[in-house]
Amino acid sequence: MVAPDDSWISVSGTVESVTHDAFVLDYGEGVMTVEMDDGDRDADGYRLVRGDNVTVNGRIDDDLFEARTLEASSVYVENIDTYFYASAFDDEAINDVIVTVQTPVVISATTVQGTVTEVGSEEFVVDTGLSKVRVEVDELAYNPLDDEGYQKIEVGNRVSVTGQIDDDLFEGRELVADSVITLSSSS
Predict the structure, then answer these.
(1) What is the number of alpha carbons within 13 Å of residue 174 lying toward its C-beta?
(2) What pairs with residue 87 in β-bridges?
């Protein structure tokens, strides 16, 4: 794959082999090493295996005296319909950016990522860094804002929310969530 150093790309393929913090991806026109630095703590329950179909979003890392690799920001594993997140920058990086492409593509779906700044009983606010988005959770099969279940959204959490934009007459524009993923907790 020809892409300049520090380019952000999305590539799909099949896992050929796996090590502790990397895997080899066959993307059809060749193979590449994909590194997953500072891997998602929740990924401990699922290890990539040879034959997994994945989509990787990340940054090309082509340092002078090192092999060219793809530093993963997210890895979507098709057979379990799940994303795993990692740092797309070298371990020394101070700031991290998460880049994700919605897979499969859903027409008219919107995905926002940011920090939760307010929490109510049926909605919360996400600060994306560019704007604040009000998120409604009443269409979900569960309420990630109550004290029941595994997921509990709190102020300070980093989240990724996918859903439909609704222009509510009284509340204004809001995102009606189809899914909410906790990227990191405030604690």
Answers:
(1) 18
(2) 37
- Radius of gyration of the chain measured on its C-alpha atoms: 18
b (16+ CB within 10 A) / e for 50-84: eebebbbbbbbbeeeeeeebbbbbbbbbeeeeebb
Beta carbons within 8 Å of 110's beta carbon, 6+ residues apart: 162, 163, 164, 165, 175
How much of the chain, in percent, has pLDDT values that exceed 70? 75
Residue 49 has pLDDT above 60, yes or no: yes
DSSP state of 57: E
Hey, CA dihedral for 128, 62, 77, 151, is it positive or negative? Answer: negative
CB 122 within 8 A of CB 176: no
φ/ψ region of 170 (left if φ > 0, alpha if ψ in -120 to 50, else beta) reads: alpha
Number of Cβ within 10 Å of residue 26's Cβ equals 13
pLDDT digits (tens, 9 = 90+) for 122-158: 999 999 888 899 999 998 888 999 988 888 999 999 9
Q: What pTM was computed for the model?
A: 0.48
